[in-house]
Amino acid sequence: MTEKEREELEKEYQIWEEKLKDLPQCSLPLFNTISDIPLKIVYTPLDIKDFDYLRDLGFPGEYPFTRGIRHTMYRGRIWTMRQFSGFGTAEDTNKRFKFLLAHGETGLSVAFDYPTLLGKDSDDPMAKGEVGVCGVAVSSLKDMEILFDGIPLDQVSTSMTINGPAAIIWAFYLITAEKQGVPFYKLRGTIQNDILKEYIAQKSYIFPPEPSLRIIVDIMEFASKEVPKWNTISISGYHIREAGSTAVQELAFTLMDGFTYVEEGIKRGLDVDTFAPRLSFFFNSHLDFFEEIAKFRAARRIWAREMKNRYGAKKKESLLLRFHTQTAGCSLTAQQPENNIIRTAYQALAAVLGGTQSLHTNSMDEAWALPSEKAVLIALRTQQILAYETGVVNVIDPLGGSYYVEYLTNKLEEEAYRYFEKIEKMGGMVQAIKAGFPQREIAEAAYRYQREIEEKKRIIVGVNEFILEDEKLEIPLLRIDPEVERRQVERLQKLRKERDNIVCEKRLKELKMAAKSNENLMYPILECARAYCTLGEITNALKEVFGEYKEEAFF
Amino acid sequence: MKKKIKILIAKPGLDGHDRGAKVVARGLRDAGFEVIYTGLHQTPEMIVNTAIQEDVDMIGISILSGAHMTIFPEVLRLLKEKGATDIHVFGGGIIPDEDKEKLYQLGVGKLFDPGTKISEIVEYINNYFKDKS
Amino acid sequence: MTISEYLKKFEEKDIRALSKIITIVEEGLEGSEEILDYISKKTGKAYRIGFTGPQGSGKSTLIAKLTKRLLKRIKGIGIIACDPSSPFSRGALLGDRIRMSELFLEEEVFIRSMATRGSLNGLAYKTKEVADILDAFGKELIIIETIGASQVDVEISNLVDTTVVVFVPESGDGIQILKAGLTEIGDIFVINKSDRMGADVLYYELKNLIEMSYQNSKWKPPVVLTQALNNQGIEELEKSIFEHYNYLKENNLLQEKRKNMLKRELANSFEEEILKIYWQDERIRRRFDEIFLEILNKKISFSEGIKKLLKEVKND
Hints:
The complex is a heterotrimer of chains A (555), B (133) and C (316). Chain A has 22 helices and nine strands. In chain A, helix 13 (289-309) packs parallel to helix 14 (339-353). Chain A is of the alpha/beta class. Chain A is globular, with a radius of gyration of 24 Å. The mean pLDDT of chain A is 95. Chain A has a domain at 53-84 and 101-112 and 151-454: Methylmalonyl-CoA mutase (TIM Barrel, Alpha-Beta Barrel), CATH 3.20.20.240. Chain A has helices at 3-20, 53-57, 73-76, 90-102, 114-117, 141-147, 166-180, 195-202, 209-226, 238-242, 247-267, 272-275, 289-309, 339-353, 373-389, 403-425, 429-434, 437-454, 483-498, 501-516, 522-530, 535-546, and strands at residues 80-85, 107-111, 157-161, 188-191, 230-231, 233-236, 279-285, 323-327, 358-360. By secondary structure, chain B is an alpha/beta fold. Chain B has a single domain (6-132), classed as Cobalamin-binding domain (Rossmann fold, 3-Layer(aba) Sandwich), CATH 3.40.50. In chain B, helix 1 crosses helix 5 and helix 2 (44-53) packs across helix 3 (68-81). The mean pLDDT of chain B is 94. Chain C contains twelve helices and eight strands. In chain C, strands 4-2-5-1-6-7-8 form a seven-stranded parallel β-sheet, with helices on both faces. The longest helix of chain C is centred in the last third of the chain and has 28 residues, at 253-280. Classes of the chains: A alpha/beta (555), B alpha/beta (133), C alpha/beta (316). The interface between A and B is large, with 43 and 32 residues.
């Protein structure tokens, strides 16, 4: 646009805007995004005045990757359809995996139960009532072997949502593959392994920050040598968002966590290009459709820029923000659960228009229970219809160039940098977390959101408007058999009798020694896994050396 | 008549999802109650000890992990054991209707679903005390 | 239950009774006076320590770690943690307890959270009474934590034998501390979160301040560096507390201190009651309003008005 054209446009716009004053105001409550970014009624070229195509967008697969990280995106390869699953015993989940694979899922994603997430065996006293209820119980290598029985690990990629005990669970997986005859270097997958967001949001931490970060870098180092196709961290915003944050906070805190991991790797003396290509991300896809798309685009651009300029990454792969998306669990309602199918569909669309590499769609019954077979099938079909029937895969970044979306992408980026500055002034993300800064921001946003709903400034269909009186729940719900806990406990006791306990003792001792020194812990952990030491035993050994993290609750 | 109603908001078990518990705690504070929040990873024993020491009028338990059929009965049992059955127990989270029925039979108060407004909880608490006096 | 039944159970060391009695006194319910009369005969055995300092300094965590240590040598610890009531809703979020969860299963530890309910000195109105109740119950040590609003709440030093003032490296420079009068009430100073930047600078500033202010004093408050979350420096804090205790005992200051505390409390309560009596007197209230109008309309001067009011009181 020339200066003259711009002035002309400015004038015309103001004439148009004047006309709005005489028109009745709309009756919808809020005109902000969920992140409280105020929105104009329409966007024009005036809102992206300094737009420079090559600088701000670039081409797909080229710096700054705003439009997408690959040249061909979905024409070359549809995103991975990866449904987060797990419940009961390893056998139960193995069945669900096979069910999903048979119906067209293209990647596996494992949900572990709470005891496992916290490094506790199924017979730990604190595990009572929680075994297999929120995910699959894995207490040893044996469980992992059963979990993947009949699933060739050189042919699937597996994502595992595990953080505190990530190194240990990963070791179980690696040895399971080894026993299948698949060498480490062939394995593809991800471990979430993002401890910083645990302190901020998901709260399944075990050790304090410093030893946790040490383990993460050990994993990064080990993977770069032995498991080069493996994503060592899934730097997550999903949980931050679920805890109540805004899109801006999700974007800013996730990227700051990412930068922190990069800095930790560099501190260890690793060349950034050896580990950065295997850092991946995990975002939420929430209700505000365009804000989410803008968020994904801003994330790619910020990451590429910072990796290049601040951390001096030279390889292209180090600049790519590859991400998995899950539709927003916190947006699902218990009331009129079938409506959740629609919510999930919109959120899935946003993720795809935002260029995600991998996607999980929630099931409609998840405000009540873990997904039933029927519900998870619909969720999977949601992705397949999106991929094969709507045509959105035909063109890359179709919303690129939209005045609104480009404005919003810029705005989210701007707001994110404001947070970066604040956190840097606090001494970095770890210090900010210790001071409770992200936690408080999130609690504040969560409370504000709830107030908006209660004051009907924000409408949630079926909850504060369009309610069905005397609703009766009419969908089948998945129930976990209480026998699961008993069976797991039995199996564990059997394992402890049948293994060579002397070797176990020895390996655990060696692990403790290694933990006290600077050794890479993956090697001794693998040895413990091979000897069938249990998850709890290995975690406790590390706890003895590293201590346990106790959170200071922040409101 | 007491001037202040005291409520304990508890997060039992291994579940780390505290968004709801924190929002409710704040909401109850804004409604004029005195609220004590236990923090995460509490055992039923810790919860009951706290409830007794603080002499709370009600305990609100937040559970989303499915362990409710273990936790609620245990809390009730401990309250009985320590002679504190006048402390009323209610809760919220992810609890299927048939389980709710079983828990109501045991003497648990109202169990709130996801999407419940804070004002509903406040009303519930106020009505409970109005009926009592 | 009747009051005497509660007191009987209290004698038997029943926790529920203790808790209920605290509530009755805190709320000023019927039976409160009878309880306090009973309690007053049984206090005096417990040692009292106060913790004050700005919000976020980590007082609660520090108290928890200290208590865990002290349990090895002290039987029975009571903790009173004060938090502010919201001036708008009058409700309160009592969150100190969260940081003490490692003590929840300790039989010997009793933790009670108290909301300020309008009190402005960093403590709940009935903090002292509740401390007395814990004393009478048999707790050997009572720890009181102020809300720690802006700088420090000074009133705490009138309620306890040892006052611990907790800072964090971001607490600001020495001049601020001097201005706030903190050096006058602290028997022990703690710099918590001492791994943060600025800890050593603050340490030296505090030490200098103390040198200057306590030149002629027999007790020079120590400055202890701690990292409560990592359990660092707790041993030193414990040591300092025992040193202060011994100092008070050896110099017969403990009795002196408590004598003064009692006198002050008596004076305060007396003043409160007098005020109540006069403000509740209808005739005096009426005369007050009349005299106020006279002053307002410039019929008499302000000081003449005061004299008139005093005459009313004297005529009673």
